[in-house]
Automatic annotation (TrEMBL):
Protein name from the UniProt record: VTC domain-containing protein
TM region positions: none
Occurrences of domain VTC (ranges): 28-229
InterPro entries hit by this protein: CYTH-like_dom_sf, VTC_domain
Species whose genome carries this gene: Trujillonella endophytica
Amino acid sequence: MTPQLRAAAALAPVGLEELVARAARQTRIDRKYVLPLAAADRLVAELGRTGGARVLDSAGARDFGYASLYLDTPDLAGYHLAARGRRRRFKVRRRTYLDSGDAYVEVKTRGARGTTVKQRVPDDGDAAGFVEAALAAAGHGAVRSHHLSPVLHTAYRRTTLLLPATDDRVTVDTELTWWLPGAAALTLPGLAVVETKTGSGVSAADRLLWRSGHRPARVSKYGTGLAALRGDLPDNRWWPVLRRHFTALTPCTSSCPADDRIPA
């Protein structure tokens, strides 16, 4: 358990199988918030008190390490589509669950009415066909798997909540770290990225955040992170978050996972 999220220790547990069955929602509406750790902890406590929130638990662990390797074209097509706010945009990444070692290749695109569509397959070293088919179905058929190369690493710890009344999910990411391939890592101390994931409408977590004065932020672990680490890219879409939060990026003082593999 991430020490800063002490409130998660008091919640009832939910297992991974039940969480996936009730709240997988590969097509969903996402809202993201950047909060001080103390505010994120208060949110978790309040969701438990008023909404009966349950926390993903595996053998007593209540937070889990994630690492992602983002892939993009030489001209950073995925980045620029997001930076310009285009309705049709994409992300391709290799996500590793550090505690289990499981890894997946994932493609995220936009669906109707601004929904996020995520597709993934286990990373067996032969995901090229999957990536190209997923991109083509979303209108990005010109992007081929061999065009993609490593662009950005991220790592963080995640606590996942189930809101049982509506089967919505809330994730709280801490110990956020970014690095360019072959470069030193930078971390964002004292902050959490909270993401609400709903089938439609507004979740109980959104309402609590709004009542506390927090509003959704345009933040992307890929887009905002790459803009923060590189000064040569357009960043207007993420400028408020960059100016308010990412000036606090500091060198990583602990070992950071790295993985330069890409879909074959």
